[in-house]
Amino acid sequence: MKKERVVIIGSGPAGLTAALYTARAQLAPVVIAGAQLGGQVAITHEIENYPGFPDGLSGPELVERMKEHAENFGAVVEFDLVESVDFSNGSPFHIKTYGEEYLADAVIVTIGADPRKLGVPGEEEFTGTGVSYCGTCDGFFFRGKDIVVVGGGDSALEEGIFLTRFATSVNVIHRRDELRAGIQLQTRAFNNEKISFTWDSVVEEIIGDADGVNAVRLKNVVTGEETVQPTEGVFIFIGHDPNNAVFGDQIALNENGYIITDQRYRTNVEGVFAAGEIQDEIWRQVATSVGQGTSAAMAAIQWLEANEERLQTLDALPAAGD
Description:
Elements: E1 2-9, H1 13-24, E2 30-32, H2 59-72, E3 76-78, E4 82-86, E5 93-97, E6 101-109, E7 113-115, E8 131-132, H3 135-138, E9 146-150, H4 154-163, E10 169-173, H5 183-190, E11 195-198, E12 201-209, E13 212-220, E14 226-230, E15 233-236, E16 240-242, E17 272-274, H6 286-306, H7 308-316
Parallel strand pairs: 1-2, 1-6, 2-3, 6-17, 8-15, 9-10, 9-15, 10-11
Antiparallel strand pairs: 4-5, 5-6, 7-16, 12-13, 13-14
C-alpha cells in the first residue's frame, strides 16, 4: 500500500490541472487516469475555443500537453482504474485500484460524466467525424451543412439553437410528439426558420463512409415505418451520466447523481474535493473544467496546510496489527 499526500481520481482537464497545481505545491500527486487519459476530451477531433491556441489543436494533443506539464512538476499519472474507495473513516482515505492500494491525505475527484449514447450502429464508428455530443465544441466544423439533433429536452434545444449559427439547417429528432424542454426554449426553436422537427422517431443507424456521416436511418415509433434521411452531422443530446458508481453512498450527490460541492469545491467529506463534469452538469467545457480543477487543487492545498499537524500525528501512529 502506498501513502500519498494527494490522489486525483480522473485525468480529464480538471484532473490534470489539479495535478499541475498540487505538483507545483510539491505534493507529488498521483493521478489515477482511468480507462482513457483525458476522458471525453480525448475523443474530441479538434478544439478551437481553448484560450491561447488560436489555430486550434486536437483533444488528444491538448491532453498530452496537460499531462506533460503536470509531470514536469512531479505529478505521477497511473494508467489504472479505481475499484473501490473508503471515505468512511476520514483522512487518510483508502483507494483501491486494480493494480495498487493507496492511502491519501486528500482526494480530488475529477472522474467526469459520460454523454448518454444511442447505442446504434455507426455511432461509435463516426464519433469525431460527424457524430458529436457537444454543439459548443464542434458546431464550427459544420458550417453550411445540414445536420440533425437527437433529443427533446433543454440541452437538445439549447444546442440546436446554437448550431443554427453554423449549420444551414437543423432537424430535431424526438421520440415523442411533444418536447420536454421549457416553454421559452420551445418558442425560440419553433420560431427559428432553420429548425425543423421529426416527431415520434428514433435513430436506428448512423450511416457514412470514409469521409464521415452522410445519413441516418429513422424509425417512426408509432407506425413502424423506416426512412433514410440525408445529413452531414449527428448531434446527440439525451443526457449525461456522472461516473459516480465507485463512491456508492459515501459522498453526497444531487438528484441527478452529480457530486455536490460548495464554492471551494469541497464535498460533504472533509478532505475530499471534486471538480469538472462530475460536479458540473451545466457548462461541460474544457476551460470551465480547468478553472474548477485549479480551484479544487488550491482548496486541497489550503486544507492540507491547515491540517498538517493532525495528519503528521496520524502518520506516526502504528498501523493496525503492528
